[in-house]
């Protein structure tokens, strides 16, 4: 697989993407599209949650997990709370979850009607948003760094390179009544593995077919991991977001909702599109002048949103508020950029 990266640029928007108006005033920590529409939510270090309606003609109307009906946003952060924002009704946000340390992962799981939250307090908690206490608290081996859910698969990445896999359809795992009361919720690990990458886990993405997951690290490398023991020969890792001796973090992994290829975004300011089945890079985009800390596809894959801003990977001493502008851009992928290609060679070897 090619590791070539385009040259650095002082331009924050070398790919000529559509710029989102009125971006946050500080670094962006997450981006998420509504599962039902082109509503885009961003959370940022200025303690704000913002929402835009993205029209396909490129204009934006102002307004980080979404509820599956597209009406509600959940946001969490360093105040150790999760707030539920009823966007369409115009109601006030309410606190629906709490941890003992900052919350950095949120996932709404519609199949069991629960909110999952991951924290540096070494727990995953499950919440019925109608109840004040968690339905269940699952202890983790270390601090939660990343989480991905594609029901019934759930993977949690923690410090010390632990990857903990849960099967959300396991009868022993979740007994939940879709009423006002919770009978019991028991969580058991399906599998725990050590990350195939040698350095700290930065991001995760479950395969669309729930048969495995991607893991990205701070060392500019992605691992492709299948859960079935009979498929282990298909596992591999590859380098990305590097230039010469410079190595950058892989900050975000997103599967295309239609073609099931995926995008990586990194601290080098680049985002690239890949096909794991043919082990090829489909498109390398030009590097922006600042890191890309987070990204997201909309529900049909026609829009790829990405943030360009300082990501704090080099510490506060390298942050200059006077020059570190924050941007959100919208890239409209061409089919050639995101549609998978046949494996090169008759035998599939490159």
UniProtKB/TrEMBL annotation:
Pfam families: WD40. WD repeats lie at residues 21-54, 96-137, 250-284. This is Anaphase-promoting complex subunit 4 WD40 domain-containing protein. The lineage of its organism: Eukaryota, Viridiplantae, Streptophyta, Embryophyta, Tracheophyta. The keyword Repeat applies. Residues 1-17 have a biased composition (Low complexity). Keywords: Repeat, WD repeat. The keyword Chloroplast does not apply. Residues 18-27 have a biased composition (Polar residues). InterPro entries: WD40/YVTN_repeat-like_dom_sf (IPR015943), WD40_PAC1 (IPR020472), WD40_repeat_dom_sf (IPR036322), WD40_rpt (IPR001680). It comes from Trifolium subterraneum (Subterranean clover). It comes from the Eukaryota. Residues 1-27 are annotated as: Disordered.
